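Example pasted here:
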Amino acid sequence: MTDQHATPDGLVIVDKPSGFTSHDVVAKMRGIARTRRVGHAGTLDPMATGVLVLGVQRATKLLGHLALTEKEYLGTVRLGQTTLTDDAEGEITVSADASKVTREAIDAAVAELTGDIMQVPSKVSAIKINGVRSYKRAREGEDFDIPARPVTVSSFAVYDVREATAEDGTPVLDLVVSVVCSSGTYIRALARDLGADLGVGGHLTALRRTRVGPYKLDSAGTLDQLQKELTVMPIAEAAAAAFPRWDVDARRARLLTNGVRLEMPDVYSGAGPVAVFDPEGRFLALVEEHRGKAKSLAVFG
């Protein structure tokens, strides 16, 4: 029988390899951590690499709240070719000479896609339309529309513009970009829209996620490294890094763990999830202010 206590509660920050789905990584981690209780905080496309946050054991209860945090990416956008999937995985549908596109035009188009914008997700995405995954509808050749959604692109920068020639001989431009954005933003949709705005089409050819909330690549391990030595960020450390911290005295800690809704200090009003710690530094719960009281989102103490 599997020893449920073999792996401590906490987060594992994985540097996801290309070609793996997020589900593949979870399945691999179940073997490494010797537990079924593994989940991820937000998917990463198979083509993409970089930070994938996994929760192990009781830390799986944190994942839904962590998924909502800001993310950061490095990527390459190819101007001059449109694909079915808005990335290099899909077949090319349109090619256009991008060699005449100026840096000024690129910067102006990037500025239009920065800030609070309405974005139409890629049709080959996991978004559900009337209960059915968008990519499933797309694969079956269905004609459908996905409504635009509000997202925030707090930073969209172009570091380099490289002239190149595509396999079919089309002169293209490869842009090395970095993006900081809200949860739910599709980088390949940004690539598609940038190309469309410039009149030559575009798609994403490479993507690396460098940060999810407070968790960065420098704290991530590859699957091979984690197979040799499993590094688990303790649940208390993970919560303190990701959420505002509320330290309570022993009496309040006892009341909270017994299900009493505590009065919350005004400073946490509208702060979203807050991590509560007892005097010994134990992580007790994730709560949210509701009418001045602490409403429990997940209890750990």
